Amino acid sequence: MPSSVPNLDQLLQQAGLSTEVPPSLGEWQNLLWRVRAALDRGRDAAQATGWAQHLLDKLSLPVLVLDRQGTVIHASKACGALGWSHDLRGQPLAELLSSPLEDLRLSNLLKRVWQGERLHQVPLSLRRTEGRLQLAEASLLPLHAASGESTAAYVAMSITTTELHGQSDDNARTDRQYFYESLLAALPASLAVLGPDQRYRFCNPAAIGNPQIREWIMGHTDAEYVAERGFPPELATERGRHMDEAARERKTVQFEERMLRPDGEPVYQLRNYTPLFDENGELLLYLGHGVDVTELRRTQEALRELNAQLEERVQTRTAELEALSRQLQHDALHDSLTGLPNRALFSDRLSQAIARSKLPDGPQYAVLFLDVDRFKGINDTLGHPTGDAMLVEMARRLRACLRATDTVARLGGDEFTILLEPLQNTEQAAQVAARIQDALRRPMQMPAAGPGGLPGGGHQVTMSASLGIVHSQPDYDSAMAVLRDADIAMYRAKDGGRAKYRVFTPEMREHILHVNRMEHELRRALAADELRVRYQPVLDLDRGRIEGFEALVRWQHPERGLLAPDDFAPIAEEIGLLPDIDRWVLAHACRELVQWQQLYPHDPSLRLSVNFCSQHLAAPDVHERVKDLLQRTGFDPGRLNLEITESSLLSQTGDVRRSMEGLRQLGVRLHLDDFGTGYSSLSYLQLYSIDALKIDRSFVQGMLDNDGNAELVRTIVAMAKNLNLKVVAEGIEDPRQLAALRGLGCDAGQGFLFSPALDVHAARTLVAEGQHHRRPDWGYDDLPPA
């Protein structure tokens, strides 16, 4: 030992120490203080270094002295007990520790020691020369320079082995630090620990699967890693930028990273960098965590694609629904057959026209209500498809007759309405109606029938229509009121002979109100038994004897008294009640005559004549109803005369003929009433089975004053005789009329000359007195007394 070096034995003696006994911590600190004082008393650095090493070699305790770079500058010989057989001077402390994480942990502790703090019982995990792990504890003490600086120049590390010293490597791995390292290594998620310098200190297999690469990366940066692996440098740049951001913001930063596998397939990682700081706010390390989100990204991409497809489908479906909605809105306001506005749309436009007409100098309007004449017959004979084709053509012609500002609509069936606005004058609506009538008169060419097609297909069809016209009035407040009055005018046009138009007047509405009131009262009359039957005798003109009665209905009105048929029968027919009234009269009269015949037997039995309306003959089951009624009353069908009018034979020929044939099969006689007042076509007499003709009273009463009437009556009687038809004359009021009719060979007659219509009691009395009773003024002087 050089002579300039203080005597070591003297220093140990002064410190109260012995080379045989390891010093305590305090004793060791005292010794180091004395050595430093000796060095400060003028010895150079080489001498100090030698003395320090010589001193450490004398100690039996493993001691390391570290500089600020973490390099060992002195190590006691006792360090050999830890398995370090070589000279440790100049070796980094990190190479003596078990792992980079241990180095990172110890480096953070050394920072505190450099600031003068003393740390004791610091656990260490060391790696021996042969590779085994050694657990130990150490004291970390700062060594200050002689210059008196506040920060330490060196750190002395005094190492004490634990009770695990010398145990096997397998047992040493149960150390707490190794347990945590093993736990981190077993995590399926990518995990890495980087120092403040962004160099790797730990990396688990989930982050880098190749063990050689995982071992290599320790102490390297991402920039060095990507350069070594041939990855794009932007990868390291982005990682560094995110770590800087995490340290700057002092919070976890998350980002997504895209890399390519060797096969070119992209791999996506969701990475997190979390900075950890010590209690002084100094950055200790970065904790990097990554999750493979490749499948998630693929799923997201698939979902985005599906969403795009779904969005496209939704848009397509939305467009379809919007188109459907528009179509539904159109269909809700338009007729499906003709494409014209329907009742709802027409009513809306009419309501607007009414509102405009009430403005000062507002435009006036007119409404036309149109109904096709005899359209039901067209449908029944040519078929509904042909009827539909006619309606479509009719709609086309109606549009052609109107202006762009006008509206034509189909209300349903064969009913159309037209709104004319603005209206220059009141004659304009009538002019349009006439123009429409002219347009409809032109024949319509119907489509030819295909296989199994329509009868009459390909033929020309003509049609006509009845129109009602309503002009704007201040008292109209609703479309319903206008359409109501237009409908009334249209039906008045139909009553006038069809193919005509009528302009509405308030009297028409009064008539409808009267009809409605009469309908209510007629229905009540049927239910309350207010109807009465009057019986007018019918005489055999040749013998002057009563052969039967005609049953005539009367209405015993509770307020208006006894009403004749002319006061209510037309309305009853219009509202469809006339068949009910006819059946009531027939049933009532049959029961009466059966009773009379039982009380006052006559031979032959009295005949009964009852009026039968056209609506009855149109019913397909009329003969069944009459048959049932005759069976219930017990009246002989051969003694019943049903009187029908010529108008009954004008429509529905097939139904009428079948009904008449069914009635005649029952034995009922059919009389054609009021002959000569209607069409008086001989074809009816040939087509239908008629038993008798009844000459209208107007001809009988004009026989004496009008040669034409007399000749007409003679012709009718002669024609009937030639056809083997019975002739009955109505309205005989003068004996001269009776004489003339008898002279012509008329078979029977009735009238005031013989008797007015009698109530049931008077008629029964007449029957009781005997049907041979004749008055002298009847002119039967050529016959023996009855």
State the shape. Answer: rod-shaped
> Which residue ranges are poorly predicted, with pLDDT under 50 across at least 5 consecutive positions?
1-5, 42-48, 163-175, 450-456
Beta-strand fraction estimate: 15-25%
Strand order of the largest sheet: 18-19-21-22-23-24-25-26
Distance between the termini: 195 Å
Question: What's the overall average pLDDT, rounded?
Answer: 83
- Helical proportion, percent range: 40-55%
Let me know the number of strands.
26
What is the helix tally? 26
What radius of gyration results from the CA coordinates?
A: 65 Å
How would a textbook summarize the main sheet?
A: 8 strands, mixed, barrel
Structural class of the secondary structure composition? alpha+beta
Sequence-ordered SSE layout with sheet pairings:
Elements: H1 8-15, H2 25-40, H3 45-58, E1 63-66, E2 72-75, H4 100-114, E3 119-127, E4 133-143, E5 154-161, H5 169-172, H6 176-186, E6 190-194, E7 200-203, H7 211-216, H8 222-229, H9 233-249, E8 253-260, E9 266-277, E10 283-292, H10 294-333, H11 343-357, E11 366-372, H12 375-382, H13 384-400, E12 407-412, E13 415-420, H14 427-441, E14 444-445, E15 460-461, E16 465-471, H15 479-495, E17 501-503, H16 506-528, E18 531-540, E19 545-557, E20 561-563, H17 569-574, H18 578-599, E21 607-611, H19 614-618, H20 622-633, E22 640-645, H21 653-666, E23 669-675, H22 682-687, E24 692-695, H23 697-701, H24 707-722, E25 726-729, H25 735-744, E26 748-749, H26 760-769
Helix pairs in contact: 8-9, 12-13, 18-20, 20-21
